[in-house]
Amino acid sequence: MITEHLILDKKSNKDTFKKDKKTEKPKRSIVKSISWRIVGTMDTILISWLVTGTLTVAFSIGTVELFTKMILYFFHERIWNTINWGK
């Protein structure tokens, strides 16, 4: 009985390790959020410039949006990483 319990525990630890290797580490999520935000911020600055006609306002909007959306994306990515659906 004790031996079976130890064997089952070791097996479940291995399964957990394998599962963890399939998920992303926080560093990867950070790099992905930064690269995506560069693209997204450039888009926001361009749209803001087209709408307002003022480059200074467009860069102000882009700067604020850069930080807020990067933080939101990081947490969004980490939450989705815990959901097994579609993996």
Helices and strands, with pairings:
Elements: H1 2-22, H2 26-52, H3 55-81
Could you walk me through the main structural features you see in this protein, from its secondary elements to its overall organization?
With 87 residues, the protein is an all-alpha fold. The protein has one domain. 86% of the residues lie in helices and 0% in strands. The chain contains 3 helices and no strands. It has helices at residues 2-22, 26-52, 55-81. Helix 2 (26-52) runs antiparallel to helix 3. The chain is elongated.
The H-and-E topology, N to C, reads as HHH
The outline comes out as elongated
Structural class per helix/strand content?
A: mainly alpha
Share of helix among residues?
A: over 70%
Q: Give the distance, in angstroms, between the N- and C-terminal Cα atoms.
A: 35 Å
Beta-strand share of residues: under 5%
- Counting DSSP H or I runs of 4 or more residues, the number of helices is 3
Give the number of DSSP strands. 0
Give me the Rg, rounded: 21 Å
Oligomer: single chain
Please tell me the total number of domains.
Answer: 1
Most strands sheet: none
Residue-averaged pLDDT: 81
Low-confidence stretches: none
Descriptive labels:
87 residues, 3 helices, mainly alpha, 86% helix
Q: What's this entry about, in short?
A:
With 87 residues, the chain is mostly helical.
